[in-house]
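not sure who needs this but someone in the group chat was asking about Glutamate--tRNA ligase from Novosphingobium aquiterrae so here u go. i didnt clean anything up, its just raw.
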Amino acid sequence: MASGSGMAGTGAAQGVVTRFAPSPTGFLHIGGARTALFNWLYARHTGGKYLLRIEDTDRARSTEPAIAAIFDGLDWLGLMGDEPATFQFARSDRHAEVAHALLGAGHAYRCYLTQEELAARREQAQAERRPFRIESEWRDAAPNSWPADQPYVVRIKAPREGETTIDDLVQGSITVANVELDDFILLRSDGTPTYMLAVVVDDHDMGVTHVIRGDDHINNAFRQLLIIRGMHAVEGGWPDPAYGHVPLIHGADGAKLSKRHGALGVDAYRDEMGILPEALFNYLLRLGWGHGDDEIISRDQAVEWFDIGHVGKGAARFDLAKLQSLNGHYLREADDARLADLVAPRITGAVDLELLTRAMPVLKVRAKDLNELAAGAAFLFTTRPLAIEDKAAALLTDDARALLGAIAERITGLRDWTLDVLEAALKAMAEERGLGLGKLAQPLRAALTGQTTSPGIFDVLVLLGRDESLARIGAQVLPAAARQVEE
């Protein structure tokens, strides 16, 4: 969406318009991703429009890599906007235009109080143990009293009487006495707009009808309404948006989500933890919102069922174990070729993608994330001599190595190297020796994979193939048994 004053506030004509408006100062936060999700879902559910805005007015902290990271995370989750993103900084002239309109109509004023004067008044309020409120003598000053060539800020003229009520879609009815609202700054002394002003102007010009965001913005809503209602009085067509303030996400211990609870950025869940986007989508959806006892909710079902009014008022607790469990479900449901493409870069060395794809049905049944899938598949692509884990090496006793030699002798001459044929041969051998099948499978698994856990042993034999399987077994048998096999 192009910037500038050409955008019209046509939300009412278009139906529901939501927006997600991150500040590009770092990664896409997991809480921001859930806010984006709720906005996307509400727009889809109502047949409306979902927009993106990059709030890049903090030039010192806003970076191109951060913008790219936010877009990358949103794209991965399928939450990109319905139109090109708006960049807030590019609209600074429009923001200033609105501030001057409020100033000209008497809804704002020039304030010439210096930083030193404000600091002294703040210190006096602290000494007298009372809250500090801006009480500017410039609030009602006539224009002819304005000092020439002296810097000033433009402040909103907040009402001093009455109260303001917001019927929040999540929190319910909230009322604040107007005396609690301060004469906050709209334009700084250098003429640049503040965040509070820019947000309101952009929401109006983008036609936003529903502002769905974190409940840490509740106080901002009352202040932003002052601008909206001031402009409605100036030119009309500035309706109040509907607000829905969503509780923040907390850690499992009930404290606000922080780095000590684990990853905060969406990219870390994808890149470091191996989570699928559909799993994170489903999990974030269920953080504070639900549909009966349903845990597994598809994208289409989410669109059909979602209503912002059903978001809980209390903070949701992030549970990594639940996310991993949900991810395991989506791994089992995922296309094998897609999983192979995702897992291959996580395996060291050369990878046969066709083999990895064939292995997926037996690998994914036990994995919770892509890292576990990669670890489970690594044995397929390990070159000999095979590294044997300590626990697996403990299984390779002399008796076990002798048994491996007998196994190799039994299966070498099999005409077909298939699951059924291998299983029949080894079960028959176990019965002949009066052993449980596990007594054969344990040392065989250690020899074939170097580990104590793997897919079913017959699956392992089939995936490795006749030559590689016999070579790995042969490397672990006793010398005498090895000679016997060679003879």
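also The longest helix spans residues 218-235. if thats useful
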